[in-house]
């Protein structure tokens, strides 16, 4: 049974669950955009749990419209999903980012890097350490270089509120959160999620720390389902 802080959607035999909340109740005492929140310790307060990555654009779109796009954490969790979709098929991934991002410039800035990071070429063959096909898995709970980026199952994206206060911009309200992941020396990967003026679904506003070079794998990556 779901509680107010837990919502679930099923697509075929794939299950997606949104849990927790951020609680942006910290006080910006110095008016510098930094929250004075003694309770903040970088521990997860919100998460998205899912049994499988979406298997098609239709599933990705349905899950975004039906559940994940309705919350900050749900939208943030779609970033590793979209990265994985892009790695499987560039055009498919492009469509996924166009769906969840706020603007074409956001899409181009993300996919311009992902093409060099995920897609082998004559300049970056598959055995080049710069090509990091496992990058989306690095954003999942339990995955780290030392275990060949093998996440726990069901897959989980853990998050907490950033120390930066939400701000109202010309694009809408921007919320700053961290995806907590062990694929980098700094485990807090900041993501900016936007609620456009007039409401609707949340959008990805900025997320460069989710696709910067992570630690090189130790062993062979087993993939994700």
What does this protein look like?
- The chain is α+β, with helices and mostly antiparallel strands and 225 residues long.
- The protein has one domain (6-25, 54-210).
- The chain is 25% helix and 22% strand.
- It has helices at 57-66, 72-88, 90-100, 104-118, 135-138, and strands spanning 6-11, 14-20, 46-50, 155-161, 167-169, 172-180, 188-195, 203-206.
- Strand 1 and strand 2 (14-20) form a beta hairpin.
- The longest helix is centred in the middle third of the chain and has 17 residues, at 72-88.
- The two termini are 26 Å apart.
Question: What's the arrangement of secondary structure elements?
Answer:
Elements: E1 6-11, E2 14-20, E3 46-50, H1 57-66, H2 72-88, H3 90-100, H4 104-118, H5 135-138, E4 155-161, E5 167-169, E6 172-180, E7 188-195, E8 203-206
Antiparallel strand pairs: 1-2, 2-3, 3-4, 4-6, 5-6, 6-7, 7-8
Helix pairs in contact: 1-3, 2-3, 3-4
Q: How many separate domains?
A: 1
% residues in beta strands: 15-25%
Q: Ends: how far apart?
A: 26 Å
Helix/strand class: alpha+beta
Rg calc = 17 Å
Using the alpha-carbon principal axes, give the shape: globular
Q: How would you describe the oligomerization state of the chains in this entry?
A: single chain
């Amino acid at each position: 049974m779901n509680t107010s802080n837990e919502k679930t959607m099923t697509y075929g035999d794939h299950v997606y669950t949104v849990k927790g909340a951020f609680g942006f109740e910290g006080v910006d005492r110095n008016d510098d955009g930094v929250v004075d929140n003694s309770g903040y310790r970088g521990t997860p307060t919100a998460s998205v749990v899912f049994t499988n990555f979406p298997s098609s654009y239709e599933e990705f779109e349905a899950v975004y419209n039906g559940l994940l796009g309705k919350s900050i954490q749900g939208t943030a969790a779609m970033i590793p999903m979209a990265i994985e979709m892009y790695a499987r098929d560039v055009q498919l991934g492009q469509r996924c980012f166009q769906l969840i991002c706020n603007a074409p410039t956001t899409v181009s800035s993300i996919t311009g890097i992902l093409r060099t990071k995920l897609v082998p070429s004559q300049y970056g063959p598959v055995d080049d350490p710069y090509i990091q096909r496992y990058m989306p898995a690095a954003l999942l709970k339990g995955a780290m270089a030392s275990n060949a980026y093998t996440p726990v199952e069901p897959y989980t994206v853990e998050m907490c509120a950033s120390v930066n206060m939400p701000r109202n911009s010309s694009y809408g309200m921007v919320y700053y959160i961290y995806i907590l992941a062990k694929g980098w020396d700094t485990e807090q990967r900041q993501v900016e999620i936007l609620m456009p003026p007039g409401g609707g679904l949340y959008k990805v506003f900025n997320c460069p720390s989710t696709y910067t070079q992570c630690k090189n794998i130790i062993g062979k990556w087993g993939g994700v389902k």
